[in-house]
Amino acid sequence: MLLTAVVVIVAVALIFDFINGFHDAANSIATVVSTRVLSPNLAVAWAAFFNFIAAFSGGVKVANTMGKGIINFDMLKAQGSTAVLMVIFSALVGAIAWNLLTWWWGLPSSSSHALAGGMIGATLPVLGFAGLMGTGIATIAAFIVLSPLIGMTMAILLMLASTWSVRKQTPLKVDTWFRRLQLVSSGIFSFSHGTNDAQKVMGIIAVVLFGTIWKDREFHIDWWMILSCHAAIALGTFFGGWRIVRTMGHSLTKLAPIGGFAAETGGGVTIIALAKLWGIPVSTTHTITGAIVGVGSTKGWRAVKWGVAGRIIWAWVFTIPASATMAILVYGLTWAVVRMVG
User: Fold this and answer.
1) How many angstroms separate the CA atoms of 243 and 4, rounded?
2) CA-CA-CA-CA torsion for 166, 156, 289, 51, nearest 10 degrees?
3) Model pTM?
4) Which domain holds residue 211?
5) How far is Cα 257 from Cα 211, in angstroms, rounded to an integer?
6) Tally of domains within the chain
7) CB-facing half-sphere around the CA of 295: CA atoms within 13 A
8) Transmembrane segments in this chain: where (predicted)?
9) Element (DSSP H or E) covering residue 211
10) CA distance 199 to 297
């Protein structure tokens, strides 16, 4: 019975990973599609490929942060296998619900923060605030603001440097060069998306396994977790969430290939650095949005549609509390069902 429950929840975690890729496909392909460098179908295949090969880049710092940096894993494990399974199930379903809602609304909210919010909400009924890791949560909250600002700064610097470097070239030649370079930059950003986002679910799967059937073993991330999570997110990216692509690629600002290159490279480098060096599960959505706004702002204040940007920011603000609330509701329903069945 326990093994069956564990398998089901691991499957739910991989479903979340698939939806994460589906929801966040816009992050990886919006700029390369909006500049017409790649067709939508080729763009999602390109992005999915780099999502998957990120599995072989090494490092699982983000996975460890998600597994032990948001909730007190040892306290939760001490509550028993049923508590572990209920908390993780509720966290995943709450995060999935919020992701699907924001996809339907066409808002590029953060899957990372949806999952973090789900874990916070699902933990509260079991452990209260004592079960939450304040430092880890504060770091994630801080980077809601910092990651888009860093991405914006990087993109502005790259845009200015790129524009200056080709100032004596004809517009046609510049366009041709940066169409080719955008294949590289979109690959960098898709690689960073796989590096950051796939690791979140590895941490969740590890909590399920090492908190239940493997509770006598030391917490770590196995190779099969790495491959399965990258495969799931790559498959989700391949199927793409086109509603959000329209928001990211067309509604925020108009991008030329040189701008797409600057946005993707600036955002991708930011995410890779934060994930590899410090293991911070930042939002790829927030980072690329900041980068796109940064590129648009180099053309003047009016080049950015600030009303659309405002809607996106409100989605950022509400993501953690909304997904936490959903997870609490799911936990209550799950607890009621378990009591009835038991």
Assistant:
1) 36
2) 60
3) 0.90
4) 2-341
5) 48
6) 1
7) 30
8) 44-63, 83-106, 112-133, 140-161, 223-245, 312-338
9) none
10) 32
